[in-house]
Write the structure tokens for this entry.
Amino acid sequence: MARGIVDYEALRSHEIQRLKTQPATQDPPFRVTKIGHVVLKVTDIERSLDFYTRVMGFEVSDVYPDSMMPGRMAFLRFSEDHHGIALVGGAEGESRSRELHHMAFEVATLDEVFTARAHLEEHGVEIAYEGRRRAGVQIAVEFSDPDGHRLEIYWGLDQVARGEAARPPEEWIETFSLEEAVDNPPQGQDTTLQDPGLRRNKL
């Protein structure tokens, strides 16, 4: 993903505006309330279970043996839902992020994004990106699991009511560190840390 670029001309192009204004069905016979869970193929289910329980803090709800799912299948939870992620062993190689670009996990406070960064680094997990994204303006850290699936822990994603317009690109403020994200908030985003000591460059 190209970073540090906001191409206003391309964003205003007919093609992009046509895609952006694609109307939603106003009265579907159902209403999706959330993404319920994601199932990932992994090469080594024990290694992946170690990562998702030890590093991410998820709990195992159930595990299928080979007789029920070739490669075995583990169901993990991070809320009261039985599972938010499931792992199926037997992948032939690491993820190339072809179909699934990345998966993101929301936390309740900005402080937790800072503590997540420190926790990941303490466990030897390389941070691929930290800061504020453009569209949605969430503050995040991004990294990969042992199979190369790209993951994100974030806070502060814009909330947009049905039928309302999202924040315009002119209000996006992309940053490349958590500290910069705190120092340069977009309109309406309160980046006050409960614990300012979490910053790496102290004020």
About this structure: The chain has five helices and eight strands. Residues 110-122 form the longest helix (13 residues). The first strand starts at residue 38 and ends at 41.
